[in-house]
Write a structure and sequence with these properties.
about 450 residues; alpha/beta; OB fold (Dihydrolipoamide Acetyltransferase, E2P); 7-stranded mixed sheet; about 25% helix; about 30% strand; binds S-adenosyl-L-homocysteine; MeTrfase_TrmA_AS; 23S rRNA (Uracil(1939)-C(5))-methyltransferase RlmD; NA-bd_OB-fold; methyltransferase activity
Length: about 450
């Protein structure tokens, strides 16, 4: 039987928004057929035009909003919604925090998990929080521009105020952009894989105020490089490191596998919970400094350490969680796959005078099995995996090692739900989850869950 959707492309209709997807799109239904709509909030009545009709769902665009949700707020610039910068920027902050709590509840329900979700820990001011930016550089209307892509496109919208980034980072990007213009460095041309400057990455230590600039280029050569470097250093005296990463091929990956030093140090310095950290260009570092302290404190509390425990910190990055836990534990083993991050972690342990930690380079799922085979017995396991969650081989090794307690720091509810369901089969049980808003104004959801062995 041929499927016939109840709407056709370009059809205009009036509908009420009934839900918000995990990506922050409004949902309206026509005879049970869902339409996804940008910039539309639950309870709003909207006049729509259907833009795309698929087999199971379609997309529509708002022509006119007939009523406003009480949770709607105005953003200072429409570009923040049109790009990936602030996809939840039209929702009041209080409603964003509730939305994230509800998303976790939905995932747990789907996985038949009876876990209480606590109210999301938010920020007093949910703007200007990001300590890192990766900004595309393109030629727009005959001029080199920095900005942000329109959603689901590579069309650059020029921007100077990125709203969720540390304003000092925004200022740095404009200064670098102006130097690139002054010295006629060609912007990258994606369609023809020509030009030079692809992206500018900036990191700023929230506490140290040290800055790193990474120039990401298609070619090794950068014209007028010395002038550009001295321009950056003169105009931005807090820049302690300028690096280059060469990405010759067409790809969506921003940073290459290697970086080269152009000026100063290869890392910046920062602080978390009283410890100091070196962060190099290729290492992962939490992007929201104020919320990171709350996240880590939540994880430390959830670990219930007395000083006698052996702890594994899997996906340990530059060792931030490991070092925060070390003074409450007997010994901490970290495992991490990025070489630069492990080097940072080792140096960070030394600089902080922490000796009861060891960092191992490797895949968490492999090293965990090796540790299990070596008879390592951990009392507490902390995991903080990337969005794809834990590998099933990792979970199996956990099932054999049987740490009494697991603290799961997650940046993706979908894989968290899946992994908790798997861990349940090995006898683990979770009572509650604490969301911490690490990414205000965006749809991303971070949370901490403690699991105990029954
Ligand atoms: N806990 C750290 C890092 C968390 S981000 C912090 O809070 O800063 C996740 C980290 O896992 C990244 O550093 C990434 O390089 C690393 N990673 C990704 N896949 C991995 C794997 N299979 N094994 C080990 N580490 C991995």
């Amino acid at each position: 039987m041929k499927f016939i959707a109840p709407v056709t492309k370009n059809e205009e209709l009036t509908a009420t928004i009934i839900d918000l997807t995990y990506e922050g799109m409004g949902v309206a239904k026509v005879a049970d057929y869902p339409l996804f709509i940008e910039d539309a909030l639950p309870s709003e009545e909207v006049k729509l035009v259907v833009t795309k009709v698929g087999k199971n769902y379609g997309y529509a665009r708002v022509l006119e909003r007939l009523t406003d949700s009480p949770d709607r707020v105005e953003l200072p610039n429409k570009a923040y919604m049109q790009s990936g910068i602030a996809p939840l920027g039209h929702l009041s902050y209080a409603a964003q925090l509730k939305f994230k709590q509800q998303q976790l509840r939905n995932v747990f329900q789907k996985n038949h998990l009876a876990i209480e979700v606590l109210p999301t820990i938010g920020m007093a001011d949910p703007k200007g929080y990001r300590n890192k930016a990766q900004i595309p550089v393109r030629q727009v209307n005959g001029q080199l521009e920095t900005g942000f892509y329109r959603k689901r496109s590579h069309q650059l919208i020029p921007l100077e105020d990125f709203y969720i980034q540390d304003p000092e980072i925004d200022r740095a990007i404009v200064i670098v952009r102006d130097l690139l213009r002054q010295y006629h460095v060609p912007a990258y041309d994606e369609a023809r894989n020509r030009g030079i400057m692809r992206n500018i990455m900036v990191r700023r230590g929230h506490f140290s105020h040290e800055m790193m600039i990474v120039l990401i280029t298609r070619t090794k050569e950068i014209p007028q490089l010395q002038n550009i470097i001295s321009g950056i250093v003169t105009k931005l005296p807090r820049v302690v490191s300028i690096m280059q990463s060469v990405v010759p091929k067409p790809t969506n990956v921003v940073l290459g596998r290697t970086v080269k030093k152009l000026y100063g140090k290869t890392y910046i310095h920062d602080e978390i919970l009283g410890h100091t950290f070196d962060v190099s260009a290729l290492s992962f570092y939490q992007v929201n400094p104020l919320q990171t302290e709350k996240l880590y404190q939540t994880a430390i509390d959830a670990a219930h350490l007395t000083g006698k425990e052996t702890v594994i910190d899997a996906y340990s990055g530059i060792g931030t969680i490991s070092l925060s836990l070390a003074k409450h534990a007997k010994y901490v083993y970290g495992v991490e796959v990025t070489e630069a991050a492990v080097a940072d972690a080792k140096r960070n342990a030394k600089h902080n005078g922490i000796h009861n930690v060891k960092f191992q380079l490797g895949l968490a799922e492999k090293v965990m099995q090796e540790w299990r085979d070596d008879g390592l017995e951990a009392d507490v396991l902390v995991v903080d995996p990337p969005r794809k969650g834990l590998a099933s081989t990792f979970v199996e090794a956990v099932g054999v090692m049987k740490p009494k307690r697991i603290v799961y720091v997650s940046c993706n509810p979908a894989t968290l739900g899946r992994d908790i369901a798997l861990l349940q089969e090995f006898g683990y049980h979770a009572e509650k989850t604490q969301p911490v808003d690490m990414f205000p104004l965006t749809q991303h959801i971070e949370s901490v869950t403690a699991l105990t062995l029954n």
